[in-house]
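Retry 2 of 3 after timeout on previous attempt. Resubmitting structure tokens to design endpoint.
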């Protein structure tokens, strides 16, 4: 049996469309639908209860991974299919998933193809950025490695991924993902904080077992892309947040040593200056475009570097944030928990993205805000060596014609 896990937070209209499609699936197999009401204040529960034969469970703590894991605990199936509430499952996907898992006993995860359903026509800059930066959670992998009727791929994305139940619990379920969603509103809710690797992390954990991740072109969903995901504010906040979660993950998920983290900081700083040199060498090209793939990469690197620097000053902070991402935060405890978070992190995690997006170059705006020169404190000889190397690479890329 397949258990469909569907977390939702204050998106009742999207939830209703999703459930209409799921309940009309002609699957010819046994499946159940579990809707997780994740701290909803709208009519999502009434919408879910309006459908027959749907299991509705409550998760009062707002956190994506917490809601997914709560849904999985209520499941009875040997396969868990995780869907977003704005994902529309394709016809015959349930039958295909059941068939492929039966054919491939070593397949731990089946990755779903995720195609966009834009509510408005996407701007050209979004299409360009999506080619290299998957902010819209789309998924159409190319792979030549095969096992039977499935391709072997490196990962899956959250809007549509199925996993064997026993493997899911063997690896501990989803690691922390985010706290809050874009639809959060009101002074008693967190803004969206990026905490951990979520679906990517689950894939990495499953690959450490003897199981692989499979993919089939006909198993998938249409992912609804609303207008707010086609704005500079969304894209900037997405990659800004990814820099923070990568810093937390290096400490809490990957368990990197201090030496490895220090090395990554240096590499990140080198990459940062290389991208900046590339941008400076383009002689005004894309100057009037707020968001480009290179600017997004700079934003992500900058928040990553600043985050690592902050976590060195507050060594217990990452564990606190990781636990919050795993367990979520109920509204009644919002202010009490927030008061325990260093103000430096709150300033880092919750900038005014409208203000940032209003500038022609958000990365340069953030450089001034963070004062990049204060990121690293090295002994003087090492500092001079690093400075010489960075300047050499900056000059090399500044005066070289780049693609």
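Retry 2 succeeded. Sequence:
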């Amino acid at each position: 049996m397949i258990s469909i896990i569907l977390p939702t937070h204050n998106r009742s209209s999207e939830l209703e469309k999703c459930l209409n499609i799921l309940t009309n699936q002609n699957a010819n197999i046994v499946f159940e639908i579990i809707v997780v009401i994740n701290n909803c204040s709208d009519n999502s529960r009434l919408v879910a209860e309006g459908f027959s034969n749907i299991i509705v469970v409550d998760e009062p703590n707002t956190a994506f991974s917490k809601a997914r894991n709560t849904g999985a605990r209520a499941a009875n199936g040997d396969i868990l299919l995780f869907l977003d509430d704005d994902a529309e499952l394709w016809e015959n996907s349930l039958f295909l998933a059941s068939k492929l898992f039966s054919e491939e006993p070593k397949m731990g995860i089946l990755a779903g193809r995720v195609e966009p359903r834009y509510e408005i026509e996407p701007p050209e800059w979004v299409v360009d950025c999506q080619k290299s930066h998957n902010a819209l959670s789309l998924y159409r992998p190319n792979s030549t490695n095969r096992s039977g009727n499935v391709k072997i791929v490196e990962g899956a994305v959250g809007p549509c991924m199925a996993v064997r139940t026993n493997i899911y619990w063997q690896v501990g379920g989803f690691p922390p993902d985010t706290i809050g969603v874009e639809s959060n509103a009101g002074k008693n809710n967190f803004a969206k904080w990026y905490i951990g690797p979520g679906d990517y992390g689950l894939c990495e954990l499953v690959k450490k077992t003897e199981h692989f991740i499979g993919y089939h072109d006909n198993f998938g969903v249409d992912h609804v892309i609303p207008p707010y995901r086609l704005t500079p504010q969304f894209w900037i906040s997405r990659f800004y947040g990814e820099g923070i979660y990568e810093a937390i993950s290096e400490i809490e998920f990957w368990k990197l040593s201090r030496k490895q983290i220090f090395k990554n900081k240096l590499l990140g700083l080198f990459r940062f200056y290389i991208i900046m040199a590339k941008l400076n060498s383009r002689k005004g090209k894309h100057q009037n475009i707020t968001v480009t793939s290179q600017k997004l990469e700079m934003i992500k690197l900058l928040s990553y570097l600043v985050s690592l620097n902050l976590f060195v000053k507050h060594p217990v902070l990452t564990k606190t944030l990781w636990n919050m991402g795993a367990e979520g935060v109920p509204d009644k405890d919002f202010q009490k928990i927030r008061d325990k978070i260093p103000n430096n992190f709150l300033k880092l995690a919750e900038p005014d993205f409208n203000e940032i997006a209003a500038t022609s170059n958000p990365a340069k705006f953030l450089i001034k805000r963070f004062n990049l020169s204060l990121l690293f404190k090295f002994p003087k000889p090492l500092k001079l060596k690093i400075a010489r190397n960075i300047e050499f690479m900056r000059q090399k890329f500044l005066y070289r014609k780049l693609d």
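Attempt log closed. The chain has two domains: 2-171+209-230, 234-398.
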